[in-house]
From TrEMBL:
Gene Ontology biological process terms from the UniProt entry: lipid catabolic process
Keyword Lipid metabolism: yes
Domain of life assignment: Bacteria
Entry GO MF terms: hydrolase activity
Domain PNPLA: 1-127
Protein name listed in UniProt: PNPLA domain-containing protein
Cross-referenced PANTHER family: NEUROPATHY TARGET ESTERASE/SWISS CHEESE D.MELANOGASTER, NTE FAMILY PROTEIN RSSA
Keyword annotations of the record: Hydrolase, Lipid degradation, Lipid metabolism
Pfam families: Patatin
Taxonomic placement: Bacteria, Pseudomonadati, Pseudomonadota, Gammaproteobacteria, Oceanospirillales
Amino acid sequence: MGALIGGIYAAGKLPEYRDWVCTLDYLDVLRLVDVTWSPMGAMRASKVMGKLEALVGDVLIENLPIPVTTVATDLVRQREVWFQNGPLLQAIRASIAVPGVITPVHLGEQVLVDGGLLNPLPIMPVVAAHQADFVVAVNVTAHSPLPVRLEELLPPKEEAADSQTKRDRP
């Protein structure tokens, strides 16, 4: 959620985003849901990302009027990935990929999901990279008493390989 709001804010489009979101009714929200049968998530989020692309365009993070850093988790290497350059929408999409809900982003050898998986409030990348006047951070943790290991979120190896094979086909 932080990458979504922070990225839109950095692009100077937060008022337009707010206006759009405030006009959504229940059916509009349902129309944005694009169900998939992937073991990695129930939604692809392509419809939401299409709306965001119409709003902010195909902008690069390094060209934004306000510096921004978004954070994702690489499930393969089990570490944070900081997006400080490259396509803003790709960074947002990786960061909103809540395991089991929204499918991950496959970027090279990386399988990227919500940065909050490893670090619920990842402000250090922003502090380290920018001399920020303020930091936009969103904490949506449930404070679960049971720890979750990253391996538990990955599908069995044969399922993941089959999924990759299907994705690679023309």
